[in-house]
Specification:
The complex is a heterodimer.
Chain A: H1 2-9, H2 11-17, H3 31-35, H4 39-42, E1 45-50, E2 59-65, E3 68-74, H5 87-90, H6 92-97, E4 106-108, E5 116-117, H7 120-138, E6 139-143, E7 146-157, H8 164-176, E8 179-183, H9 185-189, H10 191-201, E9 218-222, H11 226-229, H12 235-242, E10 246-250, H13 256-260, E11 263-265, H14 272-285, H15 291-297, E12 321-322, E13 327-328, H16 351-359, H17 387-394, H18 400-407, H19 411-423, E14 431-435, H20 437-440, H21 445-458, E15 469-471, H22 480-483, E16 490-491, E17 495-496, H23 506-513, H24 523-535, H25 559-567, E18 573-577, H26 581-584, H27 588-596, E19 600-605, H28 610-617, H29 619-622, E20 634-639, E21 648-651, E22 656-660, H30 673-688, H31 697-701, E23 708-709, E24 714-715, H32 717-725, E25 782-783, E26 811-814, E27 819-822, E28 901-902, E29 924-929, H33 945-948, E30 955-958, H34 960-966, E31 973-977, E32 982-989, E33 996-998, E34 1001-1003, E35 1005-1009, E36 1030-1031, E37 1043-1049, H35 1057-1068
Parallel strand pairs in A: 7-8, 7-18, 9-10, 9-14, 10-11, 14-15, 18-19, 19-20, 29-35, 30-32
Antiparallel strand pairs in A: 1-2, 2-3, 4-5, 4-20, 6-7, 12-13, 16-17, 21-22, 22-25, 23-24, 26-27, 28-36, 29-37, 31-32, 31-37, 33-34
Helix pairs in contact in A: 7-30, 8-30, 8-32, 10-21, 14-18, 14-19, 14-21, 16-23, 18-19, 25-27
Chain B: E1 35-40, H1 49-58, E2 84-91, E3 120-127, H2 135-139, E4 145-147, E5 153-155, H3 166-169, E6 176-177, E7 184-185, H4 191-195, H5 201-205, E8 211-215, H6 216-232, E9 239-241, E10 254-258, H7 278-311
Parallel strand pairs in B: 1-10
Antiparallel strand pairs in B: 1-8, 2-3, 4-5, 6-7, 9-10
The chains are: A alpha/beta, B alpha+beta.
């Protein structure tokens, strides 16, 4: 037998006797070849997961063999990704199982020169001790006479790469401890999205979902490099294109998105409001608006109060501007005789007024504005103070000629965009806008998004299939970390964190913040349910549901304000959880100098990122500005668990909450952030259990009893999701936020997520294959709110409840059934008839008319004009970036956003702009961006060999003309300099960057991908060394998409020569502390 | 369209029905259909997911960290440790100014600007062609390279002895020896996955379906339709490459839709199976051997005859 088998296995025998006489096929196959089976087939099990990189939310299948992850691939059942993955998603196996990951806790003693290994339990105890001690030492009961009950001694940054459940515990524990400086990447990436979309439509999330893009007749991609940064989502643009849609890409650079677009329009970075304002003007003057939609669904007809003055009247500022404080009093922006609130915006601006008015009947003096009443309106849109006319006047000067002059876009090209867009909008056709951080990261970022919102409302593209505004977010759960926020100014569900006010009661906050009409009218129920989730039985009606346990804000505590607090010695302890500010935040030098002032720093990540090692090998160590032996910061490094090693939910960029299942246990000391926060909280509560100090009461009252699993004692993420979903008095899971009560009988950790655990079932874990559903895929995962996939979808039907057209039917009124129905969950009161007119005394949802599609808005309408909620005006206005080669062509005396937030500091100086003396020292425009091959600050890509080899080092992209002008050679070195820093980069000379003609001058733009730092496999300088901290006043987001710089051949100086070079530049440009800080000139 | 007809002169076989001669001829076995890749570069977004998915699945080593300056292409070429390679071609609308490094591919002259005068950025994911007439297979002395039941060409790394004969044999420059190992490696079209009814890793990952996997006949039909569609849409540059069973390699198992001449993408315009003369050589060698044999025979026969004559 044996001999016979061996003979038969002999290739020559097989060749002579088999079907392969020539021996080039089956005859020559080896035993190994014959036994080859794919490890996807031999795996023991497959865990359903979600990609941990960007926020498209691609499904992943994690194959496990012998308790090791052996392969990670796309999940073909996912309706979002259909089994596909981009290079980063495809590199997830290397990310999670590669040898770049650390599995040992490391400790750097104060003034130490090396890491030392540390036992995990000891490290946890040490961190708990640091938190307790620092909190007690820095506790602040009052600030300038107002109760704050907080500590500014501790801060936290990170959350967008983490699960919703982890974000929930971070915010809950830190809020319980009185820590207000809780922030994450959402601040730095998309905070202006919340302000922009929220004030326009009522919710701060993208209005549509990825797959619906295929139904667009025109897709305008502006402020986003869709194909490069969200490649798998881009498949839906390609679907639209295949169906005949026009794809327009407006971008300073010719990108991989431009390569696939029908039309690429290069424009000067930082001028998108001029461009969009030009289209708005075109639509209004040519009367190409969707008039019936505009009349019924927007506030076009509402009359604005008599006191309002436009930027056109006041040369660049709106009425209410306080020149000394750089701040607007927004009262004059309100409708005539009616005051509306905008809870998703800066609600606190109206606090004093609304609380005072509510205090007594005398406050309702004659002529005083009333809430809860409909604004007077003019349905003919002719009244000079109606929003439509205000809008028309505001944008009248945004002509094609102005667009050409300011943006550098030839008027013919601009008009081509206008024609494509307007001819693809209306009853039968819809257009979608897609943007990302190219719009958000400006000192007028919120208003960029407002401009697109206005345009889409005018064209009737919101709430309809193939329409909408697609905000592309770039971290796996950055939407979730905004919804269940690790953000200083928000509580879960976009409830406002309270500011410090005199004698503030819970009802004062609600009175000040709620709307009288619509679903924000029920804010009290949402808020009470949150306080019950946080403080449990301790929260009672008698004690205002522990409202005073919440720490209070006094102004901005954004991550950038925190950096200054670190430099000032106020903030002493810092948690970094999956975020790398030493590379990814603006002005990275200040980030590191701030950390060097800390007493302790906790870094949780996969590898030793730059934010963990700056004390040892950072740029300031290299150039001698800091000495390791003199840095007193104690640093803890905790290895983090990967998404494959923990269960939890990510919320994708379209509000889809998707559960990922743990495939394996984390190795070594690696732990989930859920584990870290839970066990840290447990330790802190143990330490404070016996305390009688009133400052410890909120910690003692905090509910913190999550079941744990297994030898690692991992908290059950599902139980946290259950708390987020909420429970009725009997402990049963709630199924909708409409069930929430304001009497304390319901508990709910995030009201907009109520329903994610309906019927006790984890709805986020639903995975009905895309092949078995329509494109809405209602049974794949769960979307907030109420599983609605297109927001404001009532607007997909005409006022009478019938679809605008058969082609664009989505949700409609079923007269026979007496309810709304269609492809999606109606975003409306389910049985409210189209013609319903509410009782004049009705409030909250009852006050919504049958044609009020924007159910979160105080008037039920989409806001062309924002009478409340914004810090820098009711209408987007073109302002130049903080550092710009040009003076504002529209408002020469008000070049920059007059309300922008500046953080003056020696290391954060600004440039002269326009025709100011010294502006020619920094003659070029710099814009920063991502590449497909890397991920944000690089922590999840620069350590991966497969990704590092694709883009191995930092480079700059410049035009051939600029190369000639500055003597730069392809693949040679260039040094790029600003007042803040200098970086060196390899030069790519490319026709993809084109000089533009602006205001009669040739202007050159320099492209800088921002992924790099000195650590990892793929190394380079961080582009953010160059960027100043200049913030949008609504969102406190930095302006890093448009700044000025100089570029010169060669590498940057080393050692002390580097600060000398910067000083020389500042001197030459005449830069002082005052440069660029003036409001008007 | 690249001239691809009448160039073989090797076996006289076409398509998948080839017989003897260059025995590397593609023929699916076990009653299976021949499968392949159709790479539609008109929808490629240059994301390189194919490169990474390939490396992850096949555990291919990292292939060097160097910034090449060849647009966004830092991979440079297919090789032992790069089985998918995305080429990036920037085509300026204007004459290139001084100091401009000409991009990137190959040895030809700079590409002329496209007809419509607009800037173009072409991207294309290259891969082993799994030729119908595979010279690498013809020359492999060990049986390491073999034709699979799917009609693909695969190296068996446990058999390869690193002789390297296949390297110059490949008309596309695909197959390569890995330094410090010596053996050759190249795309297997995920032979192990095919056996389990799974698609290759690159095709599965491709976000825009630029890389399509399937039965070759189906792919060829689909590709022809796509070209027609693009032509109708005014993309007159669209053309197929490697689809033709009558070309120099009998058609590729991995073929492409290109938007410019193949040279622009670094592809040989008229690839020919390097072993095309093998049959003729065998024929000549056979004839020579026969005549040698004949001469030898005659050298015995003739004297014998002469002897017989003499003796009779």
């Amino acid at each position: 037998m044996g001999v016979r088998k061996r003979l038969q296995d002999w290739p020559v025998y097989r060749q002579l006797t088999g079907a392969d006489p020539l021996g080039r096929g089956s005859a020559v196959t080896s035993a190994r070849t014959q036994q080859l089976r794919p490890r996807t087939e031999t795996a023991d099990r497959v865990a359903r997961s979600v990609c941990p990189y960007c926020a498209v939310g691609c499904g992943q299948q994690v194959y496990v063999k012998d308790d090791k992850v052996v392969q990670i691939e796309g999940d073909p059942d996912s309706p979002i990704s259909r089994g596909r993955l981009c290079p980063k998603g495809s590199a997830t196996l290397q990310l999670t199982t590669g040898d770049a990951r650390l599995h040992q806790v490391l400790h750097r003693r104060p003034y130490g020169t090396e890491w030392e290994p540390l036992d995990l339990e000891t490290a946890m105890d040490m961190v708990a001790d640091r938190v307790v001690e620092t909190r007690r030492r820095t506790w602040e009961w009052e600030h300038e006479g107002l109760r704050t009950a907080r500590t500014l001694g501790i801060a936290s940054l990170g959350g967008a790469t983490l699960d919703n459940e982890e974000n929930y515990l971070i915010k809950k524990l830190l809020t319980g401890l009185g820590v207000v400086q809780v922030e994450n990447q959402a601040r730095v990436c998309h905070s202006s999205t919340v302000a922009g979309l929220g004030t326009s439509f009522g919710r701060g999330g993208a209005t549509t979902f990825m797959q619906d893009l295929q139904h667009a007749d025109c897709v305008v991609i502006q402020g986003s490099n869709f194909a490069e940064c969200h490649p798998v989502g881009f498949q839906w643009v390609m679907e639209a294109k295949a169906r005949g849609a026009r794809i327009i890409n407006v971008d300073p650079r010719f990108t991989r998105t431009s390569a696939l677009a029908d039309l690429h329009v290069p424009l000067r970075a930082g001028t998108d409001i001029a461009f969009l304002g030009g289209i708005i003007n075109h639509v209004l003057t040519e009367e190409k608006d969707f008039r019936e939609y505009v009349l019924h669904y927007t506030n076009a007809a509402a009359l604005v109060g008599e006191d309002f003055r436009d930027t056109e009247d006041l040369d660049g500022v709106f009425s209410g501007f306080d020149e000394d404080k750089h701040h607007y009093d927004p009262h004059s922006w309100q409708y005539e005789g009616v005051e509306v609130q905008q809870p998703t915006g800066e609600a606190d601006e109206q606090y004093e007024d609304r609380v005072r008015k509510a205090a007594g009947p005398e406050a309702h003096g004659s002529g005083g504005a009333r809430t809860g009443r409909r604004a007077p309106s003019d349905e003919t849109l002719q009244h000079p103070r109606c929003v439509y006319q205000v809008l028309k006047r505001h944008y009248a000067r945004y002509t094609p000629e102005l667009v050409e002059d300011v943006c550098g876009v030839p008027r013919e090209t601009f008009l081509r965009v206008c024609d494509e867009l307007t001819s693809s909008s209306g009853r039968e056709r819809t257009s979608a806008f897609v943007y990302a951080v190219g719009w958000t990261q400006h000192s007028v970022g919120s208003q960029y998004i407002r401009a697109a919102s206005i345009l889409q409302l005018l064209l009737g593209n919101i709430g309809r299939p193939g329409g909408g505004i697609q905000a592309l977010r770039g971290h796996a759960s950055i939407q979730g970390s905004s919804d269940i926020p690790t953000l200083f100014n928000l509580l879960p569900g976009y409830l406002p964190m309270p500011y410090a006010h005199e004698n503030e009661t819970f009802d004062d906050l609600i009175t000040a913040s709620r709307t009288d009409k619509g679903f924000w009218g029920n804010m009290r129920a949402y808020f009470v349910s949150l306080l019950k989730a946080y403080y449990g039985d301790a929260a009672t009606p008698e004690n205002d549901f522990c409202f005073d346990h919440l720490p209070r804000l006094t102004g901005s505590h954004s991550t950038y304000d925190t950096v200054l607090a670190q430099l000032d010695g106020v903030c002493k302890g810092y948690f970094l959880m999956g975020e790398n500010p030493a590379v990814g935040s603006a002005n990275t030098r200040l980030q590191r100098l701030g950390m060097a002032q800390l007493e302790w720093l906790v870094v949780r990540d996969f590898s030793l990122i730059e934010s963990a090692t700056w004390w040892q090998d950072g740029p300031e160590i290299e150039n001698g500005e800091l000495r390791t032996e003199e840095i007193g910061t104690e640093v803890f490094f905790f290895p983090a668990a990967a998404h494959t090693e923990k269960s939890g939910s990510f919320t994708n960029t379209n509000r889809w909450v998707q559960w990922h299942h743990a495939a394996v246990e984390p190795e070594g000391d690696a732990r989930s952030d859920l584990w870290f926060m839970y066990h840290l909280g447990r330790r802190i509560k143990e330490r404070l259990a016996g305390s009688t100090d009133p400052m410890d009461r909120p910690v003692q009252d905090l509910t913190w009893d999550y079941p744990v699993d297994g030898p690692l004692r991992e908290p059950q993420a599902a139980s946290v999701l259950g708390e987020i979903n909420g429970h009725a008095a009997d402990g049963s899971p709630l199924s909708a936020y409409t069930e929430l009560k304001d009497d304390g009988s319901t508990r709910c950790g995030c009201w907009i997520y109520c329903g994610v655990y309906a019927d006790g079932v984890n709805q986020a874990a639903r995975r009905k294959p895309e092949s078995e559903q329509d494109w809405v895929a209602a049974e794949w995962a769960w979307a907030w709110p109420a599983n609605r996939r297109i927001l404001y979808n009532r607007a997909s039907a005409a006022p009478d409840g019938t679809p605008w057209s058969e082609r664009k039917a989505y949700v409609w009124w079923d007269e026979a059934e007496g309810k709304w129905t269609g492809h999606d969950v109606p975003d409306f009161v389910p049985d409210r008839a189209p013609g319903h007119v509410p009782d004049p005394d009705a409030t909250g949802p009852d006050a919504l008319r049958g044609d009020d599609p924007f159910i979160m808005q105080a008037d039920g309408k989409g806001w062309l004009y924002a009478p409340a909620g914004l810090e820098d005006g009711p209408l987007p206005t073109h302002y130049e970036p903080q550092d710009s080669p040009f003076r504002n062509a529209l408002h020469p005396s008000t070049t920059r956003n007059p309300a922008r937030q500046l953080l003056p500091h020696e290391g954060n100086r600004h440039h002269p702009s326009g025709d100011e003396q010294g502006s020619d020292v920094f003659p070029y425009i710099v814009t920063t961006y991502r590449l497909t091959e890397h991920f944000t600050a690089g922590g999840m890509s620069r350590w991966s060999p497969y990704l590092a080899e694709l883009q191995p080092e930092f480079f700059c992209e410049i035009s051939p003309e600029l190369a000639a002008e500055r003597g730069l050679t392809h693949t040679g070195w260039a040094t790029i300099v600003t007042a803040r820093g200098a970086v060196e980069a390899r030069v790519l000379v490319t026709g993809r960057i084109r000089p533009l003609t602006v205001r009669g001058r040739t202007v050159h733009q320099i492209g800088l991908p921002f992924h790099w730092g000195p650590n990892g496999l793929s190394k380079g300088d961080a582009a953010n060394e160059l960027v100043a901290i200049t913030l949008d006043p609504n969102a406190h987001i930095q302006e890093d998409k448009a700044l000025t710089a100089d570029i010169r051949p060669g590498r940057r100086p080393r050692g002390p020569e580097l600060p000398r070079l910067l000083a020389e530049y500042r001197t030459r440009a005449g830069i002082t502390a005052a440069t660029g800080t003036e409001t008007r000139t | 369209m690249t001239e691809t007809t009448g160039t073989t002169g090797t076996t006289g076989t076409t398509g998948t029905t080839g017989t003897a001669g260059t025995a590397g001829t593609a023929q699916a076995g076990d009653g299976r259909e021949r499968v392949g890749f159709f790479t539609d570069t008109s929808v490629c977004i240059g994301c390189k997911a194919c490169e990474v998915a390939c490396k992850e699945w096949n555990a291919i080593p990292e292939d060097g960290l160097s910034l090449t300056g060849m647009s966004y292409d830092n991979t440079q070429a297919l090789g032992a440790s790069t089985w998918r390679h995305v080429a990036f071609i920037e085509q300026p609308a204007r004459p290139a100014p001084e100091g401009r490094t000409q991009l990137p591919l190959a040895d030809g002259p700079p590409e002329p600007p496209p007809a419509d005068g607009e800037f173009r950025w072409l991207m294309s994911s290259d891969v082993c062609k799994h030729c119908t007439h595979a010279a690498c297979l013809d020359v492999c002395p060990t049986g390491s390279l073999f034709r699979t039941e799917f009609g693909t060409v695969v190296v068996q790394e446990d058999i390869c002895n690193g002789c390297g004969y296949c390297v110059p044999a490949c008309p596309y420059g695909v197959i390569e020896q890995r330094p410090a190992d010596g053996r050759v490696f190249k795309c297997t079209m995920c032979y192990d996955r095919l056996g389990a009814g799974q698609e290759p890793a690159c095709a599965k990952a491709c976000p825009t379906e630029s890389i399509q996997f399937g039965p070759l006949d189906e792919l060829r039909e689909r590709a022809a339709l796509r070209v027609d569609q693009l032509h109708e849409a005014g993309v007159s540059d669209a053309r197929l490459y490697g689809h033709d069973p009558d070309d120099g390699v009998g058609g590729d198992g991995a073929f492409f839709l290109l938007l410019d001449e193949p040279e622009v993408y670094g592809l040989p315009p008229k690839p020919r199976v390097t072993t095309r003369d093998l049959p003729a050589m065998w024929k000549h060698a056979g004839a020579a051997a026969l005549s040698l044999l004949g001469t030898a025979a005659l050298s015995f026969v003739l004297p014998a005859l002469a002897r017989r004559k003499r003796t009779s």
